[in-house]
Amino acid sequence: MTINNCQLLRKIAQENLRKGELWVLFFLFLFFLQMPATLVFSQVSFTLFPLIQEIKAPPGATRSFRLRVFTGPGERAEMRFLVYRLDFHLARDGNIELFEPGSIKRSAAPWITINPTEFAMGPNEVKDIDVELTIPENVSGGHYAAILVHLVPEAAPAERTAVVRTWRMASLIELTVTGWKAPRAKISISELRVEPSSEGKGLAFTTTIENKGNIHVRGEGSLTITTRAGRRLADLPLKAGRGTVFPESMRDFKAVLERELPPGEYFADASFRFGDTRVRAQIAFSVGSPAEGEKVET
Predict the structure, then answer these.
(1) CATH number of 187-297: 2.40.160.20, 1.10.760.10, 2.60.40.2360, 3.40.50.2000?
(2) What pTM does this model have?
(3) Per-residue pLDDT tens over the stretch 21-36
């Protein structure tokens, strides 16, 4: 693929973002792992490392780091890559949403420069990408960006119509700016609900954590089920990937009780802990009764 075709591919991506369309990463699991991950398919394989950059710096500071791309054995003698920056946000359901640089409130992508932005590799090679992040003087709190490494697809033969697949991986940047306004999380449980499990057996519990602060937090949640008389029946972890809640956002933490409870009335007590802080909420619910759960305490 020529440089002009690479530029066209980038332009199409930018146009999609300007129209308000979100790019949701197909490799969402990468956000929850702090280890290399490899995309492997029939003709090529490549790995990007590191997948997450956690940076803390004051306003006006410059931070430099390096990404590394590894290729494995493959049928293609040459693979062309594009490297570009986007903003990202972690949605309530855990999906990673990508946006045009500078288009969201907690953007960090416009502060990033990348070198190189295009390169070619053969099988079993290593390529370094230099990244520089320069923070403006008048910002504070959490800001976020993603650096995408995009494998340019081979052109389809002119004589036939073909479906062309593209593949990309991202290194996510979670930046904490320790500026004039101190980074601060403000966490609460805004909702706690219980419903039949989608597996058809047992119950699913969803605890919505709301962060009204200006910095992301990472914590752990748990849920305890008791009878009305206070007898403890189950202790379950509340799961949501790495447990990250973005500033000015909500995140759903889920737990599943895989066994049936006998008919009766129960309490579910949810707890979320980050650092030395813990928030709690309780819901009363019935099994074998039409009564719906009702949140009774926060």
Answers:
(1) 2.60.40.2360
(2) 0.79
(3) 343 443 333 333 333 4
